[in-house]
């Protein structure tokens, strides 16, 4: 069985993440969306909030082979824990490449058996990031179409309260 883990901060999960997740769900038998639990990154959304948003996406998109989870510590340790052989990441632009190149090298060093699979972002979403969603939402701009519809109202209110 091919098991992939899609790790990230997902602070919050965007429509770009959803695009990657749908592609991965079509390729792997099981996909775990794994929220990084690292307070040093000072996330706006708690791990629980992020997992809840991901659960709503899984439910509303009917992604039957996708599960949500969270991890702290090394990603390679989490992959071992859930039995995943693949890491899934999205690439938006060349600027992502250097960062991904480094993460891949570190993970391959730590566990040579793990392979990372990349999905190119839909060009329509290549500008999109969680930080831009946060900034737009906190400043009262429209985040419609930037986040999955099932989380739109929640995020709009939550980010407006954040500023
Ligand atoms: O969405 P992000 O913030 O770009 O995701 C980064 C993530 C979670 C994939 C990366 O920071 C990570 O795997 N962190 C866990 C710690 C770890 O395994 N570090 C070694 C590889 S950099």
Brief summary of the model shown:
Helices cover 47% and strands 19% of the residues. It is an alpha/beta fold and 163 residues long.
CATH architecture label name? 3-Layer(aba) Sandwich
Continuous helix count = 6
Span between termini: 45 Å
Strand content: 15-25%
* Structure class: alpha/beta
Q: Which stretches of 5+ consecutive residues score pLDDT under 50?
A: none
Average of the residue pLDDT scores? 96
- Side-by-side strand order of the widest sheet: 3-2-1-4-5
CATH topology grouping? Rossmann fold
CATH class: Alpha Beta
Q: How many structural domains in the coordinates?
A: 1
What is Rg? 15 Å
The count of DSSP E runs of length 2 or more, i.e. the number of strands, is: 5
Cofactors, ions, other ligands: 4'-phosphopantetheine
CATH homologous superfamily placement: HUPs
Based on Cα principal axes, name the global outline: globular
Helix content: 40-55%
The largest pleated sheet is described as: 5 strands, parallel
Care to describe what's here?
The longest helix has 17 residues. This protein has 163 residues and is α/β, with parallel strands linked by helices. Helices cover 47% and strands 19% of the residues. Helix 2 links the parallel strand 2 and strand 3. It has a single domain, classed as Rossmann fold (3-Layer(aba) Sandwich). It has six helices and five strands; from the N terminus they run E-H-E-H-E-H-E-H-E-H-H. The site of 4'-phosphopantetheine has 9 residues, from strand 1 and helix 4.
Please give the structural blueprint:
Blueprint: E1 3-8, H1 15-27, E2 30-36, H2 47-61, E3 66-71, H3 75-82, E4 86-91, H4 94-110, E5 115-120, H5 130-138, H6 149-162
Parallel strand pairs: 1-2, 1-4, 2-3, 4-5
């Amino acid at each position: 069985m091919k098991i992939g883990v899609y790790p990230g901060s997902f602070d919050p999960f965007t429509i770009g993440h959803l695009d990657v997740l749908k592609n991965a769900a079509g390729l792997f038998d099981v996909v775990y969306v794994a929220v990084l639990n690292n307070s040093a990154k000072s996330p706006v959304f708690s791990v629980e909030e992020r997992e809840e948003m991901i659960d709503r996406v899984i439910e509303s998109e009917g992604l039957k082979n996708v599960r949500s989870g969270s991890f702290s510590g090394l990603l390679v340790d989490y992959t071992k824990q859930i039995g995943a052989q693949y890491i899934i990441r999205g690439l938006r632009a060349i600027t992502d490449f250097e960062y991904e190149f480094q993460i891949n090298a570190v993970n391959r060093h730590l566990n040579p058996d793990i392979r990372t699979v990349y999905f190119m972002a839909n060009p329509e979403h290549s500008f999109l990031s969680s930080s831009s969603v946060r900034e737009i939402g906190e400043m009262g701009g429209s985040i419609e179409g930037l986040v999955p519809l099932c989380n739109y109202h929640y995020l709009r209110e939550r980010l407006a309260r954040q500023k």
